[in-house]
């Protein structure tokens, strides 16, 4: 198959026009790597290589664009690529290619998630749920959780801002349930309420 022309469609993007009237969308990287030029004859194997190389090059650029917008885990990026119509093999290739070049850093991403949700006043349980939801490898959880400050002040402030009567059992149950949903353990909640009640443990 002969290449009739190579036309630039946008910055960094090219269209390889073949003699049968078909076109292959490609990138500058693919055109350069394959040393393409007008008039070149491609056999079936070279044509297939052009299609695959172009597909992967375009996919890499899209994946890099998503990562430039925000950090992602491997699973999040793959899901995003699949949602945008990419086939599974190409999505897997992109994730692996980016990981090998350390452009996906799940360790720093996990630490950032812990710091972010800790700053918002969430407890360890809720933060672990968030790490799981975002597809972070469990092996990274414990190291990331070291970013969680050993500081009960946010918990204490939450109770102080909502508990008007330390003896009101309905109010205590409501506040306790709210804190449990935010990821605090029952023991952490009990200890904080005891602190607020100035030592009265019969709550």
| Sequence stretches where pLDDT stays below 50 over 5 or more residues | none
Oligomeric description of these chains: single chain
Strand content: 5-15%
Q: Going across the biggest sheet, name each strand in turn.
A: 1-2-3
Would you report the number of β strands?
3
The helix/strand order is EEEHHHHHHHHHH
Helical fraction equals 55-70%
In round numbers, the mean pLDDT is 86
Q: What is the CA–CA distance across the termini?
A: 82 Å
Instruction: Using the CA coordinates, give the radius of gyration.
Output: 27 Å
Structural classification? mainly alpha
CATH superfamily of the largest domain: Winged helix-like DNA-binding domain superfamily/Winged helix DNA-binding domain
Give the SSE map:
Elements: E1 3-10, E2 13-18, E3 23-27, H1 28-33, H2 44-69, H3 74-83, H4 88-100, H5 106-119, H6 124-133, H7 141-145, H8 153-162, H9 169-181, H10 186-196
Antiparallel strand pairs: 1-2, 2-3
Structural account:
With 203 residues, the protein is mainly α. The protein has three domains: 3-100, Arc Repressor Mutant, subunit A (Orthogonal Bundle), CATH 1.10.10.10; 106-145, Arc Repressor Mutant, subunit A; 153-196. It is 58% helix and 9% strand. The protein has ten helices and three strands, in the order βββαααααααααα. It has a three-stranded antiparallel beta sheet. The longest helix has 26 residues, at 44-69.
């Amino acid at each position: 198959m002969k290449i009739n022309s190579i036309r630039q469609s946008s910055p960094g993007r090219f269209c390889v026009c073949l003699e049968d009237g078909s076109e292959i969308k490609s990138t500058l990287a693919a055109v350069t790597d394959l040393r393409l030029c007008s008039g070149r004859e491609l056999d079936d194997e070279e044509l297939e290589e052009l299609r695959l190389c172009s597909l992967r090059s375009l996919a890499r650029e899209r994946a890099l664009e998503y990562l430039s917008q925000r950090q992602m885990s491997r699973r999040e990026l793959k899901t995003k690529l699949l949602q945008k119509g990419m086939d599974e093999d190409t999505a897997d290739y992109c994730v692996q290619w980016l990981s090998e070049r350390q452009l996906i850093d799940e360790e720093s991403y996990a630490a950032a998630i812990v710091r972010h949700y800790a700053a918002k006043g969430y407890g360890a349980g809720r933060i672990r749920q968030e790490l799981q939801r975002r597809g972070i490898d469990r092996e990274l959880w414990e190291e990331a959780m070291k970013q969680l400050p050993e500081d009960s002040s946010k918990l204490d402030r939450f109770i102080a801002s909502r508990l008007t009567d330390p003896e009101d059992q309905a109010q205590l149950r409501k506040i306790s349930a709210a804190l449990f949903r935010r990821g605090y353990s029952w023991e952490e909640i009990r200890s904080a309420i005891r602190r607020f009640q100035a030592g009265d443990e019969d709550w």
